[in-house]
C-alpha cells in the first residue's frame, strides 16, 4: 500500500498521516512511500510504531545521493530502492509497485502520482480536509476522467484505510 503526499516538514495533516500508517501496519500490509520527508514519512513513523514493514522508493541512485541531494531520511525504512530516475521516474515505479495508494495533501508531485494511479487503474484513497491534491483530485477526476476508477475519499484516516482495503478485496 502506497502513501503519497506533501513532503513538506510542516504540512498540515501529520497526525492523520501517522494514523494512516498505523492502520496499514495493523493490516499486516507493507507501506511504500517515495522515501521522502513530510506526510509520507509521518505514515512511515506510524507504521513503525505498529511494527510494520516500510519501503522507500527513492528518486536517487544511491544512499549518499538520497541523503545529500534530496535530503531524504534513511531511518525507519526497512528497504530503500534507489531508482536513479528522478522524481517523475520514481513516481511511476512507486505507484506501479502498489495495489493502492493513499494521498495525504500534496501538490504537483502528488498530482502526478495520482494521475499515474488513475491511469494504472489502482485503488486510490484521498484524505479529505487537508489542503492540496488529495482534497482536489476527486473533482478533477470527475471532470476529466473516465468512469470505473476506484476512488475512496474520507476525512477520517481509519475509515479511509478501511474503505481502500474493502475496494481491494472486491477488485
From TrEMBL:
SUPFAM superfamilies referenced in this protein's UniProt entry, alphabetically: MCP/YpsA-like
A GO CC term assigned to this protein in UniProt: cytosol
InterPro entries attached to this UniProt entry: LDcluster4 (IPR041164), LOG_family_nucleotidases (IPR052341)
Pfam families: LDcluster4 (PF18306)
Protein name: Protein containing YHS domain protein
Amino acid at each position: 500500500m502506497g502513501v503519497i503526499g506533501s513532503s513538506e516538514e510542516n504540512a498540515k495533516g501529520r497526525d492523520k498521516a501517522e494514523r494512516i500508517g498505523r492502520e496499514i501496519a495493523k493490516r499486516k500490509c507493507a507501506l511504500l512511500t517515495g522515501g521522502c520527508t513530510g506526510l509520507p514519512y509521518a505514515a512511515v513513523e506510524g507504521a513503525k510504531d505498529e511494527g510494520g514493514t516500510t519501503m522507500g522508493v527513492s528518486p536517487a541512485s544511491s544512499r549518499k545521493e538520497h541523503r545529500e541531494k534530496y535530503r531524504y531520511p534513511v531511518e525507519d525504512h526497512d528497504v530503500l530502492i534507489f531508482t536513479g530516475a528522478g522524481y517523475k521516474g520514481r513516481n511511476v515505479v512507486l505507484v506501479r509497485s502498489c495495489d493502492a495508494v493513499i494521498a495525504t495533501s500534496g501538490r504537483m508531485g502528488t498530482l502526478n502520482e495520482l494521475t499515474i494511479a488513475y491511469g494504472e487503474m489502482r485503488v486510490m484513497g484521498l484524505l479529505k480536509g487537508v489542503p492540496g491534491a488529495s482534497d482536489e483530485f476527486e473533482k478533477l477526476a470527475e471532470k476529466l476522467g473516465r468512469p470505473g476508477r476506484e476512488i475512496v475519499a474520507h476525512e477520517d484516516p481509519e475509515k479511509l484505510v478501511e474503505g481502500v482495503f474493502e475496494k481491494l478485496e472486491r477488485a
